[in-house]
Amino acid sequence: MAKRDYYEVLGVNRDVSEEDIKKAYRKLAMKHHPDRNPENPKAEERFKEAKEAYEVLSNANKRAAYDQYGHAGVDPSAAAGAGAAGFGNFADAFGDIFGDIFGGGRGRSSVYRGADLRYNLEIALEEAARGTETKIRIPTMEECATCHGSGAKPGTQPTACPTCGGHGQVRMQQGFFSIQQTCPKCHGSGKIVVSPCPTCRGAGRLKQHKTLSVKIPSGVDEGDRIRLSGEGEAGVNGGPAGDLYVVIHLTPHAVFQRDHNDLHCEMPISFSVAALGGEIEIPTLDGYAKIKVPAETQTGKVFRLRGKGIKGVRSSSTGDLMCHVVVETPVNLTPRQRELLAELEAINVKDEGRHNPRAKSWMDKVKEFFAE
């Protein structure tokens, strides 16, 4: 049975982007996954067909080969029939040819950019709000100071690879095709080290630790990244260094919880202050502030202190501080306190609707519920 066109399988046009190919595959994979269709054998076939199409079209080299040669360009058995046995995936061979034509062949350049690094940095909420400067120590691959990255013993130099003549690639004739592949001797560098550097043993790089100073701007939040250009791993054979990304994590605070630029805190108040009202002090990042608590304040009421939050890195205004009231029930009562509270409760019961309206309303609803 002839294979269906891979673009038709995924339901996309031939000029579709790589991202749209991925989206189409995910949709089909979810729809036809065998676990979701245990009693439908055709679903498994569709799932495998979509997977095969995605594996080809999501690979730039394989897709190029498929666009030009169809299924024969990516089918290993078809490649063997064309006289390409022993050279792995047929699409990889075409990929080398296309790369050679357009200047992007694998192994064509032995100069590589260093890897990017990530460092997780924990800071306090106060440091995030005001900004700070700290030092971090990171492990990284640095250029060998003895051989200056060449990998060769001081006084010697890497020599041209005898297998590829210093080109980094070898050309092999297979039937009608001339296939260019990465040199197996020098792995694409075009050079070999006869006398390795005693310090790095020919690698040209060493694992070391370095200490960096990081400036944390005011207003950074959880997950924000600070990029230190060129502070990643050293490049290979003179390539540029990678970058270091410092990822910010906020340590839990004893009083405040951050929500973007706003701060939240619980404000416990005594039973008597909640009933009679009063003035209390609450902490902010800039010191203490006073709040007037009106009489008959209930648990859950929120007081907003404008401008007492945090000004974010990308914000033009400062957030607010939200104080959530929690009325605290007194504990460890003295006999006199118990006597006074019992007297208060007796008064409340006589006119519950006036002194405890929420409780009265709730009890009325309960009675209506059971009366139905």
Describe this structure in words.
By secondary structure, this protein is an alpha+beta fold. It has four domains: 6-102, Orthogonal Bundle (Helix Hairpins); 111-158 and 196-252, Sandwich (HSP40/DNAj peptide-binding domain), CATH 2.60.260; 254-331, Sandwich (HSP40/DNAj peptide-binding domain), CATH 2.60.260; 335-372, no CATH class. It has helices at 6-10, 18-32, 41-57, 60-69, 76-84, 90-102, 125-130, 271-276, 335-350, 352-355, 357-371, and strands at residues 117-123, 132-143, 159-160, 169-174, 177-182, 191-192, 205-216, 225-228, 244-250, 257-259, 262-270, 278-284, 287-293, 302-305, 321-328. Strands 10-11-15-14 form a four-stranded mixed sheet. A hairpin with a 2-residue loop joins strand 12 (278-284) and strand 13 (287-293). The longest helix has 17 residues, at 41-57.
How much of the residues is beta strand, in percent? 25-35%
Low-confidence runs of at least 5 consecutive residues: 78-109
Strand order of the largest sheet: 10-11-15-14
Query: What's the CATH class label of the largest domain?
Result: Mainly Beta
Strand tally is 15
Structural class: alpha+beta
Shape: elongated
Q: State the CATH superfamily name of the largest domain.
A: Urease metallochaperone UreE, N-terminal domain
| Number of discrete helical segments | 11
N-to-C CA distance: 70 Å
Residues in helix, %:
25-40%
Mean pLDDT: 80
SSE run:
HHHHHHEHEEEEEEEEEEHEEEEHHH
CATH architectural category of the largest domain: Sandwich
